[in-house]
Amino acid sequence: MALSRKDLLGLRGVSAAEIAEILNTADLMKVILSSNSKKTPHLQGRTILTVFYENSTRTRLSFELASKYMGAVAANMSASGSSVAKGESLVDTARTLDRMASDVLILRHPMTGAPNLMAKHVRASVINAGDGTNEHPTQALLDMFTMKEKLGGISGLNVAIVGDVSHSRVARSNLWGLTTMGAKVTFAGPPTFLPPELAAAGCRVTECVDDAVREADVVMGLRIQLERQEKGLFPSVREYHKLFGLTPERMALAKKGALVMHPGPMNRGVEISSILADGDQSVIDEQVTNGVAVRMALLFLLTRHNG
Amino acid sequence: MKTLIKNGTLVTPEGLRKDDILLSEGKIEKIGKDIADGGVEEVFDASELLVSPGLIDLHCHLREPGYEYKENIASGTRAAAHGGFTSVCCMANTKPVNDTAAVTEFILSKARREGVVRVYPLGAATKGLKGAELSEMGELKEAGVVAISDDGKSVVNAGRMRLVLCYAKHFGLPVVNHPEDPDLVGDGVMNEGYWSTVLGMPGATRVAEESIIARDCMLAELEGAHLHVAHVSTAGGAEIVRQFKKRGARITAETTPHYLYASDAWVAGSSGEAAPDLDVYDTSTRVNPPLRTEADSAALIEALKDGTIDCIATDHAPHHLDDKNVEFAQAASGISGFETALGVSWTALVLPGHMTPEQLLQKMTRDPAKIFSLPGGVLEVGQPADVILIDPRAEWVVDVADFLSKGKNCPFRGRKLTGKVLATWVGGNCVYKQKENAQER
Question: Minimal Cα distance from B183: which residue of A?
């Protein structure tokens, strides 16, 4: 039981078998996570570093807890207050961390491709915890794990992903992961939030949220960064919610029992209404729990390959 | 010093012809059959080789003064000679900017002392490349600049660009623009399109380039000035130039070998053929304007063939390793281009049959010389003895360790190219020779 790859930099190009392996392992990890004794020896003797060039609460904590639940030595480096603030390059920082006998480096970085650069220069496994506007593979894995857990599988599902697709690493990772696993993905949002030629990547794209949500098995809202309004990408929060937000009325167009998902943190009343976020169809809280299980699985599988 | 090159296939304005050529006292003394070798110090047998005028590059960055860690005049001109260039025109974005006669004179004096090919500086269009006050173009011309440009930056203010064109015309100086609307580029670091979407990379729309090409063509037409459009990278940009040429505007244009051969798929490490060490997000593919699509390359080739695009320039932009060994969005833009220019162009244009060797070489010799009114560019008696030997059948693999440029930033590394420069003479002096291939007697 191991992944053949050294790093997980994204889900583009990751095979269905590998994704299935991670999700199946996460099943076992969730059992551990749900028990009263969460400590396991799977990562005994391993050192796992979270390297965050951007602020994040849930992703960083999720990885740190996953590492600690499995007995690893876990530490965090954030860019502020580190040598990065003194102008050290990513490559030099990566080499330094690598020489501290780390086994896995988990990188969150505001620039697309930064984990690829880091992976080229270190012996440790690198996990992309979100890079620029590119990918956030562990988020998509936990999303898929949640869909599988709740709906029994992924193949054949209609998944609507709604919001700021252009700037969303969650959207891209879900596109690659879900289509590889046989789901049909529809993206929706205002035209200023849809990147060019997206449909050529094997999905459906619409500017009409109602169209996307209709007959969906899963409806996923994406976080809107409010500073996008200052850049002119949408005119007002009020209009955004009215035309593109997820509301109970819109959700009624989806299949009965469809899931409501969101990677968090949410802007309530903007991309999603509170009634929906807290409603019966919402699995947003479970996504957070499942994130820990999936990250436990991934850390375990990636550290198996190097003995 | 007399050099005789025998039995070569000469590239002339009238086509290819088999002849001998005698270089003497810095000039081409004689062209003809069976030239006697009496008094000749060096004789080359060029039986299987092309003898071409030296290549002329209208657009390069020699980085001196100010950025000598990236390149200097000594290393840059040696790299140029290695690539077959005998004349190079260097842009003004040095430190200090070449916006005064003193900087121009410094560059020319360094080139005389340390350079091995002819160096023609361009002066800045505006002081400090800031797009505001006009540079002292009259004094710059007296000091020796051949054109003016704020290359590296667009003159964003249209009113200011109009004044630049108007004032430069008075001195007979062509204006080279850098067509790029920074507001439309935004955060974009690669071509906006399918691959930027797939890679999750901020894209720069082609319209950022095309809108400024259109604006500057209109302004040049208005002022009757000579506008030379730098590094055209899009099909739309070429079409705008085509239309303005038809209307009679004084527009010339260049493109570069990399826009003819590479595409934005290369940023994904997906070049359609073997590229051994090109990774996804490889910063050697970061260039400004960005690599566009294969359809753009095809349109640029057509534009070269029909004369819309007048010449091929390198936009040789050497960078230090540290400027490229960073995140893609932080990486410096540019490709070290002197030493692959002929091979890449040959492989993109001659090998697939888009152009004949003489058509390609005209785009790299005679035609650029005409645009900036430079000497050379043709093999005729009395012309400067700027001559290169090309092996048109040589297949070679690009190894950046062989570069004489300090800049090793090259997306063509590891790639097999056809067409290689074996020797370069400037003013009759041999400034580069690949000894194992050039058959010296």
Answer: A231
